[in-house]
Amino acid sequence: MADERAAPPVRVLLADDEALVRDGLQMLLDNEPGIEVVGSASDGAEAIDLAARLQPDVVLLDVRMPVLDGVEATRAMVADDFSPGNQTVRVLILSSYHDDDAVYGALRSGASGFLLKSAVRRDLVAALRTVAAGGAWLDPVVAHRLIGEFASRPNPALPTPEEMAALTDRERDVLVLLAHGLGTTEISDHLVIGETTTKTHIGRILMKLGLRSRTQAVAAAYKTGLVKPGDSPPGTSVDLGGTRP
Predict the structure, then answer these.
(1) Lowest mean pLDDT among 56-65, 97-106, 205-214
(2) What's the mean per-residue pLDDT of the chain?
């Protein structure tokens, strides 16, 4: 517990159209060491605006909101050029329903996890900390459905064209480098980004494409034609194995 208190707090932005829910979450999290609520929003458009200005570590986002829903809000907040300080903003979806198509739309748009509003306090706190650290958190009922969808595919290692198109340019760059056999550190050096950012991109690639491992991601990159045998890694401002200018 001492280490958690010594570390920088996880900065959280709350986004829910119900004031009682926002107030309840704020009261709960205000009493949790290592968690700091930096703001709250009542709709998706306000959540985007506050996230850009406050740059929280995690946006705890209700998927069903007025003005702009959670799917579009998520897509905006996880875009590569969203944060002026290049800080990764992660989204944790919060919903009353686990079978809402909007929940899966938000996950495919780049949300880092999903939690039911009926979750207990320890799960909420654990989910926030996991997502802030670059990990993913899925409520068991959602994980079960995603696994079922994955298993029902004729070729589970081959994403659909729509899923491939959902990748951002940076996620495609990371997938290409993964397919060329680069590890996390090498990809980070090659693209001149932090390792935590690289891990976040990889997690989003797997989630968007419905894959379970980096090995499946590599196979998907080749099978979809994103990378072809004999291709060389794309050049960047950093040469593999070299030093930065």
Answers:
(1) 97-106
(2) 82
| Four-point Cα dihedral 50, 53, 59, 63, nearest 10 | 40
Q: Widest CA span of the chain, in angstroms?
A: 58
What residues pair up with 36 in beta bridges, in sequence order?
11
pLDDT (tens digit per residue) in 75-102: 899 886 776 666 778 999 998 877 667 7
CATH 3.40.50.2000 fits 2-140, yes or no: no
Q: pLDDT of 140-183, one tens digit each? A: 777 766 656 655 655 555 788 888 888 999 999 999 998 887 87
Strand order across the 90-95 sheet? 35-41, 10-15, 58-62, 90-95, 113-116, 137-138
Extract the tokens encoding 36: 């700091």
Pick 153-223's CATH classification: 3.30.70.100, 3.40.718.10, 1.10.10.10, 2.40.10.10.
1.10.10.10
Q: Within the chain, where are the H helices?
A: 2-6, 19-30, 44-54, 70-77, 101-108, 121-132, 140-152, 161-165, 169-179, 184-191, 195-209, 214-223
